[in-house]
Write a structure and sequence with these properties.
188 residues, alpha/beta, Rossmann fold, six-stranded parallel beta sheet, 6 strands, 30% helix
Length: 188
């Protein structure tokens, strides 16, 4: 199993939970966009597609924010059956009237069920996705959903550096146990 992280707008810095996963467990890599500060829906989806197709075997996707949106857009238009599931954390509502102008070019969000098992993790106080909108996206996409009380955008500034629950969710939804890189301790 290969685990592919898909960061969002501005990328995932050195203390972001996606980076901690990549640096702790074997079999992880990251989709790398040409410019993390310029959200371009078509280019971001194409880069994800190119990255997935360059991996041998089964793949599990792990998105955050605009990266979760990219995963959903890719699944709705370019799906590869080797992708066995996806964890979509705090997808940004790129269609909201008050969304950041920098991320609005990523609209529209998919309005169809996704052809892959997805689990959405949303917060009840995310400034970039209302709880009602998150629950509606989960219903539209056919995703299971989990609500984190007071989690904000589930980002570094919200206290989500090493995030052991994220690792547990990946194990649960991928059906595989994460193996620490030799010499590394699992996230706690």
């Amino acid at each position: 199993m290969h685990y592919l992280t898909v960061p969002g707008y501005t990328g995932s810095g050195p203390d972001h939970w996606q980076t901690h996963l990549e640096n702790t467990y074997a079999g992880f890599s990251r989709v790398v966009q040409d410019d993390w500060a310029v959200v371009d829906r078509d280019r971001w989806v194409a880069r994800l597609d190119e990255t997935v197709r360059g991996i041998d075997g089964e793949v599990f996707l792990i998105g955050h924010s605009c990266g979760s949106v990219t995963v959903a857009q890719w699944a709705a238009t370019h799906f590869d059956s080797r992708v066995v599931g996806a964890l979509l954390v705090a997808p940004a509502d790129v269609e909201a009237a008050d969304t950041l102008p920098a991320i609005s070019p990523q609209a529209p969000l998919p309005t169809v069920g996704l052809p892959v098992k997805t689990h959405l993790v949303v917060s009840d106080d995310d400034p970039f996705l209302s709880l009602d909108r998150g629950l509606a996206l989960a219903a539209t996409w056919g995703s299971t959903v989990e609500v984190v009380p007071g989690g904000g955008h589930l980002a570094t500034r919200d206290g989500y550096g090493p995030w052991s629950h994220g690792a547990a969710l990946i194990e649960l939804h991928s059906g595989h146990v994460l193996e620490p890189i030799q010499g590394r301790a699992p996230l706690v």
